[in-house]
Amino acid sequence: MSDGTPPIDALSAQARAARTADAAALAHLLADTRARTLAVHDAYARALPGLSVPQRGDLNPPLWELGHIGWFQEWWIGRNPQKGCGIEADPAAPRAESLLPNADALYDSSAVPHVTRWSLPLPDAGRTHAYLADSLDESCALLLRAGTGDADLYFYRLALFHEDMHSEAGIYMAHGLGFAVPEVGVPEAHARRDLAVAARRVRLGGTDGGFAFDNELANMEVALADHVIDSAPVSNADFAAFVTAGGYADARLWSEAGRAWLAQTGATTPRFWRRAGSDWERHWFDRWVPLAAAEPVMNLTCHEAEAWCAWAGRRLPTEAEWEHAALYVPGFAWGSVWEWTASPFAPYPGFVAHPYRDYSAPWFGSRRVLRGASVATHARMRHARYRNFFTPDRNDIFAGFRSCAL
Fold it and tell me: For the whole model, what pTM was predicted?
């Protein structure tokens, strides 16, 4: 069993610390994520008159996003009578009134359809900011009186990671809308080479203690065959060769779903690429920059990743292959881009939904697993067992891929 020796993964250290953070550390982390949320929102306020964005599936109204973050924290902490029960809490337990009148009708993402969020009577920016401040003050006051066990701190950790996810989504949205947000670097470049992995049985999922998302839990044993996996994600130069070779026009390289996506979008290059003479440029937030050949390719759909693999005579790794390599294979570089895998998003055996019922279960079977992290992901979210999941047609997220030999 490969998990009988300590993992070599170092990128997950801050994530593991956050997942096991005590009350004092959590108070600091909740303040930290809120500062990031507000910094991203300030960029929206500067760039968008009236904070108006188009009604699209990959966007949310910025004021709705902001209010939802405060509502989520208040719902699961300030208003939750069973907050000390952890994953045993009843999500339907009656709640006290919100600090903000009518908040449930405005911000409950499980009950408010996406398309209606543009027409809701949302509070203005000043009232929304006050609501966030009030809900954070309430959470921190309750945290001072919380117990020390994982159950006692479960919802504080959940609120922390939920807000980190929304900050990252806000960065994707800003990128797609064409304006800059603070503190987003460029993906780190690594030379790509083959890493040979011998057949073995490995454990997929599980926890090092502390917090874990419900879809990570299983300690499921998986048999891996001999395989060869890339040491780093596919680069811009690698993908440009596919584009130049006419990869988008060769229907044989694309899955049925990929061909449907091509027909719908008319794509002939990655979403944010354009020609600049004989070279390529990439749109990066508020400017066009030369395409850095060695950096990992990003903003790809899963369809594009699979087509490149077909062209190169490779395949996408399974999430089990990815997780094992991230934890145990020397030379495996990750963390600059989310990485599409060959695995559909599905429950591990014995899956039991945590109180936030809509986090995982509604999306099983309709999405594809991505592993890793991106330059927009906070370091405390970069955990080798974390399962991200999106529909395979999404190219607004900072996603690329690595490959395995056939």
Answer: 0.97
